[in-house]
Amino acid sequence: MDDKPFEGAIQSKAAPIDPGSHKVRVTRKDGKSLEDTILVRASEKDRIVELAFPAARVEVPPPVVPVAPPPKPQVQSAGFHVPWYAWIGVGVGAVGGVGTVAFALSAKSDEDGYRRTCAPACNEGDKSGVQTKVVLANVSMGVGIAGLGFAVGSTIFANLGGAKEKAPASLRAAPSVAITPGGGVLLVRGGF
Predict the structure, then answer these.
(1) Exposure of 31 by Cβ count < 10 A (0-12 exposed, 13-18 middle, 19+ buried)?
(2) Is residue 6 in a domain?
(3) If you average pLDDT over residues 106-115, what whole number do you get?
(4) What confidence tens digit (pLDDT) does each residue in 140-151 have?
(5) What are phi and psi of 75, to 5 degrees?
(6) Where does the pLDDT of residue 163 fall: very low under 50, low under 70, confident under 90, or very high at 90 and above?
(7) Structural domains of the chain, count
(8) Interatomic CA distance for residues 85 and 25, integer angstroms
(9) Is residue 113 one of the residues assigned to a domain?
(10) Strands (DSSP E) along the chain, which ranges?
């Protein structure tokens, strides 16, 4: 008090002080101090003077909000669809159907003409032309049925199981059609 140590202050006991203005300083063990001026009146007794250090500021970190992993993208089914390669099968089926009708009508027309003009004495060359057209009509019908079967089968296969992730190119099926000397071949190649 008044720049002099004041014994007895720690015990919170009353002590005689002369009236007037006095400077009070409290110093903690860590070296921080607090200072105030008080006015003591004559014949004033049992007055309690409180000096309080401000509460220590405690930095409260912001709450930790757990970060959820980003949601997996939902693969949505596109509904029923016809894959592009099924349209190739439809085209092959249509060409086969047109070829069947064309070769069958041509063979029937030739046969009817031969029956009117040279039957039963027609030469073998005339008969073989009709037989060739009948074989071509049958082959065209087979190609048409295979093309339409491929279109239907590939559409069903593409729509089974809903939405799936696309397989790598090395594992996908690759259809191909080839014409050979003895007819035609439909190949489906792929790895698994």
Answers:
(1) exposed
(2) no
(3) 89
(4) 999 999 999 999
(5) -85, 115
(6) very low
(7) 1
(8) 94
(9) yes
(10) 20-27, 33-40, 174-180, 183-189
Cα 105 to Cα 39, 60, 100, 124: the distances in Å are 131, 94, 8, 20
Which of 100, 94, 182 is closest to 133 using CA atoms? 100
Is residue 138 one of the residues assigned to a domain? yes
Distance CA 47, CA 81 (A): 94
Q: In the chain, count of helices (H) and strands (E)?
A: 2, 4
Indicate if the pLDDT at residue 3 is higher than 90.
no
Structural domain boundaries, residue 103: 86-157+174-189
pLDDT of residue 108: 92
- Cα dihedral sign for 134, 135, 139, 140? negative
Q: Report the C-alpha gap between 146 and 44 in whole angstroms.
A: 119
Residue 44 lies in a domain: no
Residue 95 has pLDDT above 80, yes or no: yes
Residue 89 near residue 154 (C-beta atoms within 8 A): yes
Residue owning tokens 């063990």: 29
Question: Torsions phi, psi of 180, nearest 5?
Answer: -115, 165
Task: Supply 15's token pair.
Answer: 């002590």
Asked if pLDDT for residue 162 goes beyond 60, the answer is no
Q: Is the pTM of this model over 0.85?
A: no
As a whole number of Å, the CA-based R_g of the chain is: 53
